[in-house]
Amino acid sequence: MVYTTVTRTISLFLVAAYLTVASTPSAFAQSRVTVVRDAEIEALISEYAQPILKAAGLSRSGIDIVLVNNRSFNAFVDGRRIFIHTGALTDAETPNEVIGVLAHEAGHIAGGHQERLRQQLQRAQTMAIVSALIGIGAGVAGAASDSRGLATAGMGMAAGGAEMARRSLLGYQRSEEATADRTAIDYLNRTGQSANGMLKTFERLAGGMALAGINVDPYQISHPMPRERIANLEELARKSRYFDRKDPPQLQLRHDMMRAKIAAYMEGGQAVQRLFRGNPRGIPARYGDAIATYLNGNPRTALQKVDALIAEMPRNAYLQELRGDILIKASRAEEAANAYARALSLAPGTPGLLQVGYGQALLATGKPDLVKKAASELQTGLSREPEFANGYRYLAQAYGQLGDIAAADLATAEGHFHLGRYQDAKIFATRAQKRMKRGTPGWLRAQDIIQYRKPG
């Protein structure tokens, strides 16, 4: 599991934007989020999402699912991306709960809600500005006539207009959320899946608000109240012939192994114990324990634990990946490379992230022939996962050891570029280009980085 902090433009409605005229007119915020990259989790979430995206007519729309390192239960969309918090994955007890969340977010994308939200934002902004101008005009008139009452009325007009615009926009958002809920149930029915997971999610949210003693004005929030959502959806959900359908046992096992992995990485071994206290000797609990042992710097014991799991699940690619990670930490690079090669042979498709891990292990051997192979594997893996910024560091090291300084500089430039460090990327791209023949693919890529202009 790898964490990368990046800056992304995320469609977050800023309520404060319409409280005063002096505030920003934009509804979009530059937000730094820590993205989690993990081959096992991404493969599972993709498996959850594909039937839903197909039902939504989005299977060929290039939808990406991005994992965000955040403990809260949340998901949202931006452009062609669905962002889902790791907290949502660990809190969801069944695959069906996560699938319900994905169906809801797919409903937003398929329904074009983002574009209409932008239009509503512009309308609300106009309403707020017009109200403010009217209020300012009344205030000026009051000052000129020395009428304190008229000036106060002008201030009230400005504040009232901004509040009306804000409430109008929140009402629109609640309507779109309700539409996405209904659309999600339709997608679940089309794919033969239960909507029970969605209901459980809303019940969890309602319970959380009740336990926190939160008393919310329903007109001041952008989503329907949880109890209201449950009441609206329960009848529809229970009408489905798939309502009582359970997730397949093997899928549930993979889901719990994902939860164990996230818990181990995010919160440590005690979190894994709490999560699986009902079955402490089950495979998920032992998987999380092996990861926590590895993270705590005890590779020998971690290797024993993962080998015991492999004996039970010899065709699990991601146990082999963990074995490779442990062996690298134990400075047994060639054995790690063999484990990664085994993981690649077992994983569906050819996951770029696993290929990068294989290249990293080959690089760690320090043997010239294996370093050359490492460069090839890293390059191929990154061609499949071009935004995996951390991988370019290993590629640069491989090219550096092979004496190809131009390629090493270009790889470093790529890494900076995908981390949003554009000035550093341009510096290394310029260095690389000076060593390259004009017009070659590497030279042209360096030119693209040098000439890149950040949008907005």
TrEMBL record:
TPR repeats: from-to residues: 317-350
Keywords: Hydrolase, Metal-binding, Metalloprotease, Protease, Signal, TPR repeat, Zinc
First-level EC class: hydrolase
Required co-factors: Zn(2+)
Domain of life: Bacteria
Assigned EC number: 3.4.24.-
Domain Peptidase M48: 38-236
InterPro entries with a match to the protein in the record: Mito/Outer_Membr_Metalloprot (IPR051156), Peptidase_M48 (IPR001915), TPR-like_helical_dom_sf (IPR011990), TPR_rpt (IPR019734)
Keyword Signal appears in the UniProt entry: yes
Pfam family, any one: Peptidase_M48
Signal sequence interval, chain numbering: 1-29
GO MF annotation, one: metallopeptidase activity
Name this polypeptide is given: M48 family metalloprotease
Organism this protein belongs to: Nitratireductor rhodophyticola
